[in-house]
From TrEMBL:
Organism whose genome encodes this protein: Blautia pseudococcoides
GO molecular function, one term: NADP binding
Pathway(s) annotated for this protein in UniProt: Carbohydrate degradation; pentose phosphate pathway; D-ribulose 5-phosphate from D-glucose 6-phosphate (oxidative stage): step 1/3
HAMAP family: G6PD (MF_00966)
EC identifiers of the protein: 1.1.1.49
Keywords for the protein's UniProt record, in alphabetical order: Carbohydrate metabolism, Glucose metabolism, NADP, Oxidoreductase
Domain Glucose-6-phosphate dehydrogenase NAD-binding positions: 9-181
Protein known as: Glucose-6-phosphate 1-dehydrogenase
Cellular component GO terms held in the UniProt record: cytosol
Length: 465
């Protein structure tokens, strides 16, 4: 193991670390890539020894790792994982942390902020007491800031301590296999690229539905809500990839793609008819969740109808929705094409992001037999059904941690993307609340509030599940 490189996770007893980061490190360890992240320091305020932490982490890794779990592989990973107890808001505690790093012979650092954004600033202040910290890399979880003003302040603070090109703003949806695939499906197939516009498409629906509620994360989530937790980052990233112009190279994930994404985000239209463009909801029982305010108005569901002010997408709605405690878990991009004639059904392309990864295409054929009728052919390509694909496809966090170590910055969000998204999300939320529009209640296990269905009905559409 490269002892000198030290990978420190602030928020090491949180949901993200247990459910995503440790399983990713395990997968990297099995595929021998963990050598590159060196020793792992877990920072938490709970009273654990390293040994106790390793025992707790074991169950999570066993449950959530992509690759088959074995004791031997886990023990190899765990031997390089050390728990360090501290309150990361206590500036004085960083002097002792510095001593701990000296004992651990830490020389170069990657700091991972797996905490709510309101803590980022105190951690950076504290890291000023850690030798060489400012030469290290930092990975920042989303949402970056809690609004545009806070995000700008935070960005200045981050860039005054770390070198700007050592700041990695992670959006793990950018590491998902089928999100990376959208570009290829769009641009490498003339059957799609030639008709990818408002002239041929009726609407595009982007859905990220979750079955789980806020679980143990009430404290974080109640300050955030669906718009900041999912829409401002993950869903706007996907929207911008779906709607962007072709970057120079079909498979390119660099500067050019980034520029095209920004152009999309800058052309988001701010609706005048806010009541017909945004619906916020909260599942029944949300206020009884641990660490949630009993009179909370935080939304656990958001549905939007958005338009882009550009030639390609003029007057074509993008429908976006996300929520917790819904009927099932599904993340997909559905492209509904215009019909060839009024009595003929639409062609539908469904890019399935998770849990199944694949592509579904519905098109029209003559019904077999003597009748002169039209029927639908449904072609369903399941990429993740193949064991070989599963074994060879890294999880998002696995991919992004590796990219950070290698310095591949194009896999991460850039500041101007974040800024453009915040501008829009801040303003649309303000308009919703200024008009005193309700946060609609919905039943757990449903598809969200009826108001979200009505929003589409009014526009002559409906959600496709
Ligand atoms: N969970 C997920 O699936 C995803 C989360 N994220 C992002 O990751 C970030 C963290 O989310 P998540 O892990 O879910 O949140 P959690 O609330 O589960 O975890 C927060 C962590 O911060 C620790 N913490 C809080 N205050 C202190 C303190 N003063 N000193 C030391 N430790 C402290 C908590 O410790 P303690 O255990 O003692 O409370 C806990 O380990 C958020 O920004 C979120 O948006 C991003 C993608 C996915
Ligand atoms: O960033 C977040 O993402 C998760 C959903 O991630 P997925 O990879 O399971 O789709 C979401 O549950 C969480 O609230 C949010 O912070």
């Amino acid at each position: 193991m490269n002892k000198k490189l030290t990978f420190t996770i602030f928020g090491g007893t949180g949901d993200l670390t247990f459910r995503k980061l440790l399983p990713a490190l395990y997968n990297m360890s099995v595929t021998s890539k963990r050598e590159s992240v060196g020793q792992v320091i877990i920072i938490g305020r709970r009273d654990y020894t390293s040994e106790q932490y390793r025992v707790i982490a074991r169950d999570w890794v066993e449950k959530f790792a992509r690759l088959p779990y074995t004791e031997k592989d886990y023990d190899r990973l765990a031997a390089g994982v050390f728990y360090y107890k501290m309150d990361f808001t206590d500036e004085k505690a960083y002097t002792q942390l510095n001593e701990f790093y000296e004992e651990m012979e830490a020389e170069s650092h990657i700091f991972y902020f797996a905490v709510a954004p309101r803590f980022f600033s105190s951690i950076v202040t504290g890291l000023a007491h850690v030798e060489h910290a400012c030469h290290g890399k930092v990975v920042l979880e989303k949402p970056f800031g809690e609004n545009l003003t806070a995000a700008k302040e935070l960005n200045e603070k981050m860039e005054s301590f770390f070198r700007p090109d050592n700041i990695y703003r992670i959006d793990h949806y950018l590491g998902k296999e089928m999100v990376r695939n959208i570009q290829t499906i769009r641009f490498a197939n003339p059957i799609f690229s030639g008709v990818w516009d408002a002239e041929h498409i009726d609407c595009i629906q982007i859905s990220a539905l979750e079955e789980v509620g806020v679980e143990t994360r009430g404290g974080y989530y109640d300050h955030s809500g669906a718009m900041k937790d999912m829409v401002q980052n993950h869903l706007f990233q996907i929207l911008s990839i779906v709607a962007m112009e072709q970057p120079g190279d079909l498979m390119l994930a660099g500067e050019e793609m980034h520029r095209e994404q920004i152009r999309v985000l800058s052309s988001l239209n701010m609706p005048e008819d806010i009541e017909d463009s945004l619906v916020l909801g909260q599942y029944r029982g949300y206020r009884e969740e641990k660490a949630v305010a009993e009179d909370s108005l935080t939304e656990s569901y958001a549905a939007m109808k958005v338009f882009l002010d550009n030639d390609r997408w003029k007057d074509m709605p993008f429908y976006i929705r996300t929520g917790k405690k819904l009927g099932h878990r599904e993340m997909q991009v559905l492209v509904v094409f215009k019909t060839a004639a009024p009595h003929v059904q639409s062609n539908i392309l469904n890019i399935k992001i998770q849990p199944t990864e694949g592509v579904y295409l519905q098109f029209n054929i003559k019904k077999p037999g003597e009748e002169d009728e039209i029927a639908q052919a449904k072609m369903d390509f399941c990429q993740s059904c193949s064991f070989i694909n599963q074994m060879n496809t890294p999880e998002a966090y696995e991919r992004l941690l590796g990219a950070c170590v290698r310095g591949e910055r194009f896999w991460f969000s850039q500041w101007d993307q974040i800024e453009a998204s915040w501008k829009y999300v801040d303003e649309i939320r303000k308009r919703y609340h200024d008009k005193k529009l309700p946060v609609y209640a919905y039943e757990p296990g449903s598809y969200g509030p009826h108001a979200a269905d009505k929003m589409l009905e009014k526009a002559g559409d409906h959600w496709l599940d």
